[in-house]
Amino acid sequence: MPTVRLLLPELRHCAASPEVAAGVLARWLARADRLPPAEAGTLPALRTLVQWPGTRMPVAALTRRLDADDAGQGAWLRADPAHVRPDLTTVRMLACGDLGLTADETEALLHALKPVFGDSGVPIDAPSPSRWYLQAASAAELPDCPAPDEILGDDLKLHLPPGPAGKRWRLLLNEAQVILHNHPVNAARAARGAVAVNSLWFWGAGALPAWARSACGHVLTPDPALASLAALADATPAPLDRGQMARLCESAGTPDIGIDLRTARAAVLEREWLMPLDARLRRRGLSAIELAFLSGERAVVRPGHRWRLWRRVRPLQR
Length: 318
Description:
The protein is of the alpha/beta class. The chain has helices spanning about 10-15, 20, 25-30, 40-45, 60-65, 105-120, 150, 165-180, 185-190, 225-230, 240-250, 265-280, and strands at about 5-10, 35, 75-85, 90-95, 125-130, 130-135, 200-205, 215-220, 235-240, 255-260, 290-295, 300. The protein is built from 12 helices and 12 strands. Strands 2-12-11-1-10-8-9 form a 7-stranded mixed sheet, sandwiched between helices. Strands 3, 4, 5, 6 and 7 form a 5-stranded antiparallel sheet that branches. α5 (about 60-65) crosses α10 and α6 (about 105-120) crosses α8 (about 165-180). The longest helix is centred in the middle third of the chain and has 19 residues, at about 165-180.
């Protein structure tokens, strides 16, 4: 019987939903074996499913591995298309990545940007309209900027690469913004009510990891970077699909299964994932369920733990 390893949102976010706070998680945590807490954050939680060298996740190289056959050649940096809006004192990012660009629009914008980035030694291309890349030498110093979803709505100046080392990237971004602002593609997009692609965002820097390991044989995730990392570790990636989970659990000899539920909505988390897994655990169809919250809490629940009736179940607390 497999062990299922769940990657979950922060515990306070689970507690914020009345449905989740009084549901399966509350019972599990009341009766589970608590494990030593880990450092809070996405990377420590991801390492419960897959381990790799280094202190950050090279998202650009990992997604490049999905989009093209050259991910092992040098280092990579995502330069995703973005929509920003200036106000009196700041410039705020309102969207990044999937802006509904067509292949023709993407090619036209890249045609204007390629001389700037090519002359700077970091050629740009876009095998996907929502994922753009800069390629650099393996030893190149690349900016360590946060992922777009961490800074949406925030002032970009707070997250640009700082200091003399970051000056090159700030200047490149400024040049790209001028080119994009004046491009006919954006005039046409504005005429039909689509958002302008008026900026880029540099993030996910790094080279493809030399190795990756996982105790899981399968990893279900909506995150393309984690899917790529799982494949690098010889764990089979799959979309986040409850039917796929059921099929894996029912197959004889299935190895451990990692399930990435970081972004699952509360109702979906409770009804479509936690409740079916709890029913399977009660039938002893699983060896255990390991819980890893983004806030650092760790626990393991086993079939026999449901008989710890002396442990009172209380709703999760924020």
